[in-house]
Amino acid sequence: MKALVMSDSHGWDNEVKKIVDRHRNDVDAIFHCGDSELSGDASALDGVRTVKGNCDFGSDFPEEYVESVKDTTVFVAHGHLLNVKMTEMNLIYKGEETEAQVVCYGHTHIPAAVQEHNIVILNPGSMRLPRDYPVGTYVIVETTEKDIYVDFYNLKGEKMTDISKKFHKNY
Fold it and tell me: What is the pTM of this model?
């Protein structure tokens, strides 16, 4: 499985579309972890599985999303309802509950990737308003038979090798 994961684009339409178009033919799925501040019918989100963030109003998007893509189950939430600024435990619980191998969230605007309880938990960071990292980021996550690769990219499409990670599957 190979997926594009982005979050916290906060009203950017053209920038989201540019990144989606850059990777659309290279990935099996595209996820937005919320705070797009776009409507569900925005052309930039065409084909993008999007969840509702704390800055998204209306009922265009679900609070959570679970999908099996090829051999990998992915859980997606913005994170504000799971207290992600305080603990990762609720993300781990959601991963276990949904039998997800990859859990994606946003909200903190901080790019992160860790492995807990055989679940890779990742935050692609914020495209528009990054925190604790100097540029906006998004992720390409790829699973193989033995490994999970979490590659961070800046908005120009350049790989950020200093924060990209590889995890070994332990199941």
Answer: 0.97
